[in-house]
Design goal:
2 copies of one chain form a homodimer. The first copy, chain A, is an all-alpha fold. Chain A has 2 domains: about 1-80, Tetracycline Repressor, domain 2 (Orthogonal Bundle), CATH 1.10.357; about 80-210, Tetracycline Repressor, domain 2, CATH 1.10.357.10. Helix content of chain A is about 70%, strand content about 0%. Chain A has 10 helices and no strands. Chain A has helices at about 1-5, 10-35, 40-45, 50-55, 60-70, 90-105, 110-125, 125-150, 160-180, 185-200. Chain A starts with a helix and ends in a 12-residue tail after the last helix. Chains A and B meet through α7, α8, α9 and α10 of A and α7, α8, α9 and α10 of B.
Chain lengths: ~210, ~210
């Protein structure tokens, strides 16, 4: 089997180039026409490939689109090998990641498609399931891995519920962005990280079950 | 001026009854037809009142609808005088409020309209502004007031940023509900409250600026 899949180097390069063109086309188009009018035909035309090339790699337009976001979003497209930054300082690294997220929301070319997709996911349970599999869970695993590294470094307790921690760190940023209640600033995200890591300073009301 | 506004008790009762019928009609209809097809005409017909009766009290369908949510949501419609519960125990009270929110999301008659509206707000900055004025800010002020009471009771530090605290407590619940990533349970919301109040137990990485 492995032998049959082996290709000459120039063919591999062409495949990778097509794949990137398809992902970029899907990302551009969803910002222009919205998710409902996005089609495999449209993506193929924009990318300059045949429909069959797309169907060879992806089962649906949603799958293409989430791979496009994964390529472009935190870690995935920045040559970091798909992980969050790890300088050994969890607080500094989380601040840096959330500041980068603020930067993404300030870029209309990223913000528009992200908003269109977020709205679709909220109204469509089937799409939400594809999202979770293709994008949500891979991103969440990156976040868990960074928190595990902080546990190994003794900066977070071993018994920490990583999924609760992730929700606390990322949800306020998501909601402020989605609802536009107040400007999403780097000062805000810094303070969220501090408040989550250190708590609100509650006193005299017992301690969590750890 | 006050004398001109005075009405006989039966007229006041009729007004209050019409007001409640209008709010209930708006709430039912948005769940049935969605926000785009919701109209003042439709609300008037369902409530059995004239359009002018609605326009006398509200400037737009969005304003009616947010008042309907305010009447039905946390505190506003439960005879508590519009406040969050205050037993003197901030942790228990926050858990109780978030458990009630989980209950609301389990009721299709509430969940459907709330989801329809949340999606509309995310895609429509003008509606988001009406939401913020009519519903978002009144609810947020209820939350701030409960946290201030905890500050007075010595359970939260005086210098706490109340808006950051509110975001940390409520955003994870909102995002888990909106994206349906995992079931929204009372066990989850209890643990969110504990983690927010006490922090993740981060150690050796300095302390927040308080």
């Amino acid at each position: 089997m492995a032998a049959q899949r082996r290709t000459r180097p120039d063919a591999t390069r062409r495949s990778e180039s097509s794949r990137r063109a398809i992902l970029a086309a899907a990302f551009e188009l969803v910002g222009e026409v919205g998710y409902h009018r996005l089609s495999i035909e449209g993506i193929a035309a924009r990318a300059g490939v045949g429909k069959q090339t797309i169907y060879r790699w992806w089962p649906s337009k949603g799958a293409v689109l989430f791979d496009a976001f994964l390529m472009l979003s935190e870690g995935g497209g920045k040559g970091t090998g798909g992980g969050l930054p790890d300088t050994g300082d969890i607080e500094a690294d989380l601040k840096s990641v959330l500041r980068a997220t603020v930067g993404e929301t300030e870029d209309p070319l990223f913000e528009g498609p992200l908003r269109a997709l977020s709205i679709e996911i909220a109204g469509d349970p089937a799409l939400a399931a594809v999202y979770a599999e293709r994008l949500g869970e891979p991103l969440r695993e990156m976040k868990r891995e960074r928190l595990r590294s902080a546990q190994r470094a003794g900066q977070l307790p071993a018994g920490l519920d990583l999924d609760i921690a992730i929700d606390l760190i990322w949800s306020p940023v998501f909601q402020r962005w989605l609802y536009r209640t107040e400007p999403l600033t780097r000062e805000y995200t810094d303070r969220v990280v501090e408040a989550v890591l250190h708590g609100l300073g509650a006193t005299g009301i017992g301690h969590p079950r750890a």
